[in-house]
Amino acid sequence: MQLDVSEGSLKVYEALASSVRLRIIRLLSEHPMSVKDLATALDLSSPIVTKHLNKLTEAELITSKRVGHQKVSSLKVDTIDVKFPHQIYPKFKVHKNAIPVGHYTEYSVEPSCGLAGPDGYIGKVDNPKYFMFADRMTAGMIWFNNGFVEYQTPNFVGPDEQLEMLDLSMELGSEFPFSNNTWPSDITFFINGKEIGTWRSPGDFSDIRGKYTPDWVPDNVNQYGILKILRVTDHGTYLDGQPFTDVCLKDLPADEDLWTIRFEIKPDAKKSGGCTIFGKGFGNYDQNIELSAYYS
Helix (H, G, I), strand (E, B), or coil: what is residue 86? Predict the structure, then answer.
């Protein structure tokens, strides 16, 4: 589950703001439990336990079902990621490019793979030939198990402008047939042919529906990813504000006209769990792949 600091996430924060509910989560992390079993473990009455369970259910943290005459609860999520607004440096000007996820210029992918648009799947799922189908330009979500997709976008930094920082922002997840919330995958980033680093995606999420994912997408397939912000500076690369690799701006091969961006599951990846890229109209962030070149 991914949260932000908006009021839309308030129910989850409120649900977690209770020592009793935190104990319930810890108990359910071991195995599903009935209201009676939870009441015994917590030394509380069943009606009080039920009130706490209702709060966790409203926040979509747990789910419950009837087993005989008992109501049994289990955890619905295993990870919560909180995204804080990132700071924009006001002293720098910026050239910002948004790249739709279907506008890749080169690819080599293996099943499971496919493309999805606002009204349905694009071509046939698990057939790499359709990655060159003209309708791919309308895709809002693409996925593949092994291989890569590569994008090109104009480099508008002029000869009298000093590049200070390069930001790459995108919503990513792993790829598993249907979905698997705990399916790690090593996704490697390249800019202008230079390997920037590898991020391990924790899973392919369908615990809740994506905020912008179209209604036609079934509940049991990819719903959303995690927003990742890769920042290359003159003293290293950061991922979501944390030190990532030693790659600096001077290490990027300069190109007069273009930036080239690649997302790859390398053949020697320790966790080869595929890649899903979410674009505008899908996932939890209504955005395409964004490349921002900050300059002075």
Answer: coil
